[in-house]
Amino acid sequence: MIMAEIHNSELIKGIREDAKIQTSIDDVPTQLGKTVVPVMETNPKLFRVCDVVASTAGFSSTTLYSVPTNKDFFLTNAWVQIDGTADQVSERIITIIINGVGVVLLRIKNNSAYASVGGGSPSPALALNFSVPIKIDRGTNIVVTGAQTLGYAGIVGYTVED
Fold first, then answer.
1. Do residues 142 and 64 make contact, with C-beta atoms less than 8 angstroms apart?
2. Residue 67 has what pLDDT?
3. Nearest CA to 138 among 64, 66, 69, 40?
4. Cα–Cα distance, 102 to 105 (Å, whole number)
5. Which residue, 154, 79, 158, 61, is CA-closest to 124?
6. Are 107 and 93 in contact (CB under 8 A)?
7. Is residue 37 very low, low, confident or very high in pLDDT (cuts 50, 70, 90)?
8. Three-state SS across 123-142?
9. Which residues face 146 on adjacent strands?
10. Whether residues 90 and 17 fall in one domain
11. What angle do CA 55, 95, 50 make, to 5 degrees?
12. Distance CA 69, CA 67 (A)
């Protein structure tokens, strides 16, 4: 039986280190066959860790996140929430830039008719989790705007080096 020979020194080093093979006792396997079946990430760059989490609480408009000019940023989650009262209209909007065009990503609005339902001050919220991350234009801002009352907004995403 002919077995595939491993010629990649980084892979051999990874097998030795990850399997904790003691080279003073055993040889590092250099052939694939019945006894050695490595399982590895074929492209570890596809597995991302969300390293950007930004949120705000406040009454006014603000920048949630400034997208770097030297990295791609991918948005994976976004949320908005408003704390309304029976006599006020409140709103929260998250705006992003995709291919040079401003896009309203999320908008939530509370008006006095809605706020009076149930006799209290509801805190309506809206959240989106994107199964395919959204690439936001470099050098742009993810902005939250709002009116009247206290509101919350946030995003989660990750950056990718060139």
1. yes
2. 95
3. 69
4. 9
5. 79
6. yes
7. low
8. CCEEEEEEEEEEEECCCCEE
9. 92
10. no
11. 45
12. 7
- In this structure, what token pair is assigned to residue 9? 């020194």
Q: Mean of the pLDDT values across residues 117-136? A: 78
Assess whether 72 and 132 both reside in one domain. yes
Residue with tokens 């055993």: 26
10 Å Cβ neighbour count for 26?
10
> In the numeric block, which tokens belong to residue 103?
């896009």
Domain match, 60 and 97 both: yes
- Using alpha carbons, select from 81, 90, 84, 86 the residue that is nearest to residue 128: 81
Tokens of 27: 């040889």
| Statement to judge: residues 89 and 19 lie in one domain | no
- pTM of the full predicted structure? 0.64
Q: Residue 69: which domain range?
A: 46-161
